[in-house]
Amino acid sequence: xxxxxxxxxxxxxxxxxxxxxxxxxxxxxxxxxxxxxxxxxxxxxxxxxxxxxxxxxxxxxxxxxxxxxxxxxxxxxxxxxxxxxxxxxxxxxxxxxxxxxxxxxxxxxxxxxxxxxxxxxxxxxxxxxxxxxxxxxxxxxxxxxxxxxxxxxxxxxxxxxxxxxxxxxxxxxxxxxxxxxxxxxxxxxxxxxxxxxxxxxxxxxxxxxxxxxxxxxxxxxxxxxxxxxxxxxxxxxxxxxxxxxxxxxxxxxxxxxxxxxxxxxxxxxxxxxxxxxxxxxxxxxxxxxxxxxxxxxxxxxxxxxxxxxxxxxxxxxxxxxxxxxxxxxx
Length: 330
Known about the structure:
Blueprint: E1 2-7, H1 11-22, E2 27-33, H2 39-47, E3 51-53, H3 57-60, E4 67-70, H4 77-86, E5 90-94, H5 101-114, E6 118-121, H6 128-138, E7 145-153, H7 167-182, E8 189-197, E9 212-219, E10 224-230, E11 238-245, E12 248-252, E13 262-264, E14 267-269, H8 276-279, H9 281-297, H10 305-324, E15 328-329
Parallel strand pairs: 1-2, 1-4, 2-3, 4-5, 5-6, 7-10
Antiparallel strand pairs: 7-11, 8-9, 8-15, 9-10, 11-12, 13-14
Helix pairs in contact: 4-5, 5-10, 7-10
């Protein structure tokens, strides 16, 4: 059994913990660590973990733990990756793996020096539509991309007082930046331009909170990508993508809960999903399955620290462009 410790027991941590304990044969949830009083204990009890702790040092000191899944707040990610690597643990880290390039470089170097697997949680690569589109690119069916699009629209209900000004770039659109790279394999970003504003919570605009954004990304193969995000979509959680290439077009995602369309007195309706875990539950499971396979077989991670760095570079450039109103060359 691959024994994995979970660090962070919030919403995403709880979902990853459930995957580790119930959805992956050959994986054992060895520990849950979280400094918040009572949270690790409760989640560990609910999921049948071997133990819980409020001090993450106990995870580093446990020789039975072979790997960790980091789902703590983003500001702690880089430090936790470094500590895990120095303790000889393989690392899966939720995105973003760091909030600065220097911190991410430190994390990448620590995992490289320790010789441990380091995978970052860009789950869309593991969703069926996205994986199928990449396969069409890899086998040459689509040919060279010309226009790419990726969007994320959250269902709303966020607390603006808990959202940092650049969150829309560093923690939301970073998924879309990775998607644009994933769907334009081998290409390098050369320029980033962003337009953003406070349209969901206008009164927070003077405090720097951005909740709506569109980012244009240029690649060295001539392709142009568009990434957009908004923190509130009244109809649900909406994630889609599109690749227009010389050989045709691939469209990804439609946000439907099922394929059902109901026609009644009120007109025609469809049910839409309301959250990321509902839409990407299979992808979240698949990415942890890929991580476990990489650890047990010794093969490279499917999403690397270098992938995380490339996406963070775009995110930081987008934030700079939004502040200055100018395109940022990469």
